Amino acid sequence: MATNYATVTWDQLHRDARTLASALMARGEFKGIVAVTRGGLIPAAIIARELDCRLVESISVISYSGESAQDQKEPRVVKAPIAAGDGEGFLVIDDLVDSGETAKVVRDVLPKAHFACLYAKPNGKPHTDQYVMEVAQDTWVLFPWDTAPLFVPPLARNLGA
Ligand SMILES: O=P(O)(O)OC[C@H]1O[C@H](OP(=O)(O)OP(=O)(O)O)[C@H](O)[C@@H]1O
Ligand SMILES: Nc1nc2[nH]cnc2c(=O)[nH]1
Ligand SMILES: [Mg+2]
């Protein structure tokens, strides 16, 4: 079970995706981008815009059924990235690598692609070619699409409770 949570706002996600795009510029042009659904879709859209890349494919992988590491399942590819072939010249984008199991399965399908993500936990780091920020293994990242602002009572109201 994750003991900590790290909340990522839309602004921060956009900034981190642009930082990744900027680092990827040094690798020259990609033929196309493969987004790992669903978490990689929004980062891939931001990066495709920055790299002026119009060919966006997807690979659909299901690895988690809930909101913690306890909910991890064997990753299942439910849609193949046909347009990307063996991945040569393609960039694969996911939101994060945690255990690295999803990335491993994606790499089996696209062995020649360059794999990049925004956030990487220590166990996932060996399975990504590039990432923006490291996150502790016991931290669960809450993406902007996972959360909503909600009312929090003032501290003083809990006095004596
Ligand atoms: O390195 P791992 O331990 O495999 O975990 C990382 C994967 O888990 C999440 O996807 P998830 O399966 O929850 O599906 P989603 O992207 O559709 O939310 C995340 O988006 C990564 O793809
Ligand atoms: N939202 C989210 N999904 C994950 N899938 C695997 N690890 C994580 C994480 O830390 N946050
Ligand atoms: Mg995912």
Automatic annotation (TrEMBL):
* Highest taxon above the source species: Bacteria
EC code: 2.4.2.22
Q: Show the Pfam families listed in the entry.
A: Pribosyltran (PF00156)
Positions of guanine binding: D98, V141
The cofactors named for this UniProt entry are: Mg(2+)
Question: How is this protein annotated for GO cellular component?
Answer: cytosol; plasma membrane
Sequence positions that bind 5-phospho-alpha-D-ribose 1-diphosphate: R38, G39, K73, D94, D95, L96, V97, D98, S99, G100, E101, T102
- Work out whether the entry's keyword set contains Transferase: yes
Positions of GMP binding: K73, D98, S99, G100, E101, T102, W140, V141
Family of the protein in this entry: Belongs to the purine/pyrimidine phosphoribosyltransferase family. XGPT subfamily.
* Protein name listed in UniProt: Xanthine-guanine phosphoribosyltransferase
- Recorded source organism is Asaia bogorensis
